[in-house]
Amino acid sequence: MASTEYMRYGGNTSCIEVHGADGPAIVIDAGTGIRELGKELAAGSQPKHVELLLSHTHWDHIQGLPHFAPLYDSNTSIRIHALRRRTKSLSEILADQQSAPFFPVSLNQATASVEFIEHDDGDTFDIGDTRVTCRQLNHPTVTGGFRLEANGHSMAYVCDTDMYGETLFAQEMPVEIDDEAEARRLILQGTRDLGHGVDLLVCDTFFLPDEYRPDFGHSSVDDALRLAAETEAQCVALYHHRPGREDAHLDAILDRYRGQNGDGAEILGSSEGLEITL
After folding, report:
1. Phi, then psi, of 270 in degrees rounded to 5
2. Edge-to-edge strand order for the sheet containing 48-53?
3. What is the pLDDT of residues 174-190, one digit of tens each?
4. How far apart are CA 21 and CA 150, in angstroms?
5. Burial of 159 (0-12, 13-18, 19+ CB in 10 A)
6. pTM of the model
7. Among 151, 144, 137, 148, which Cα is nearest to 117's?
8. Could you report the per-residue pLDDT of 87-120, keeping only the tens digit for each?
9. Sign of the four-CA dihedral 165, 213, 34, 5
10. Do the bridges between strand 130-136 and strand 113-119 make them parallel or antiparallel, or are there none, so unpaired?
11. DSSP state string for the chain
12. Interacting residues of 238 by C-beta distance below 8 A, sequence separation 6+
């Protein structure tokens, strides 16, 4: 049973659904939140198509996939996108998660049609009427952020990254760079490209400034607002809350930063079930 201190913002791990005016369902990340979403998507008997954008394969971003109902629906096709890894394929990584002794149903037992698509840093592709761009972020393992554009509106998903820290976490950079400072600069420029002028910036705000640890690969609320100012983003959704933050604590964080941000970007607190119209 969920503790009452976390009921309003929720406790599931990362998952967002994006509705466009045309095209298939677009889902970003497959944390535990994808289970409830899957129940909704599986309703009805018409053929369905799902496009899943995975930022990276740390457990809190993929652990809901084995419980995603459309995966076991023969009337559904699913395309799973992520940045390319040189050492192991996306399909192998996700199959490992659903192998014994971790899960009783293997990925090859999924009855949906599943396709894995691996992208390079900077790739742009279309999903229905939505243009998607992916860029590498500064986080342990190969991690990507996404920019989605459709019908004159845009959003960026910049989760799990240390944007302004002095440690290079990103692995398997697309080009060999001996200077870590230059590599971090290039990643930050790519991050800014994702957020440039967006209507909505969904951004990693794991830390408060006094909590920051340089060995985690995460950012702070101040970092997110700095990125919003640099990119002229219209609205920032604080995202990937640090575990243990109670509703009252998140309310206080929102009040504090809204009071400090003046004429800057609008600030929202991500919560389960939140709907944002652009």
Report:
1. -60, 135
2. 16-18, 25-28, 48-53, 76-83, 113-119
3. 666 778 888 999 999 99
4. 8
5. buried
6. 0.95
7. 144
8. 899 999 999 999 999 999 999 999 999 999 999 9
9. negative
10. unpaired
11. ---GGGTTT----S-EEE--SSSSEEEE--STTHHHHHHHHH-SSS-EEEEEE-S--SHHHHTTGGG-GGGG-TTEEEEEEEE--SSS-HHHHHHHHTSTTT-SS-GGG--SEEEEEEE-TT-EEEETTEEEEEEE-SSSBS-EEEEEEETTEEEEEE-S--SS-S---B-S-SS--S-HHHHHHHHHHHHHHHHTT-SEEEEE--B-GGG--TTS---BHHHHHHHHHHHT-SEEEEESPPTT--HHHHHHHHHHHHHH-TTS-EEEE--TT-----
12. 203, 205, 221, 224, 250, 253, 254, 267, 268, 269, 270
- The label of the residue with tokens 């060995």 reads 215
Q: Which of 23, 46, 118, 108 is nearest to 72 (CA)?
A: 108
User: 4-269 belongs to which CATH class?
Assistant: alpha beta
Please name the residues in contact with 210: beta carbons below 8 A apart, sequence gap of 6 or more: none
Place of tokens 């002794």: 101
Q: What is the distance between the terminal CA atoms of the chain, rounded to a whole angstrom?
A: 34
Which two tokens mark 217?
């690969």
Half-sphere exposure of 21 (CA within 13 A, CB side): 9
Structure tokens at 38: 């899957």
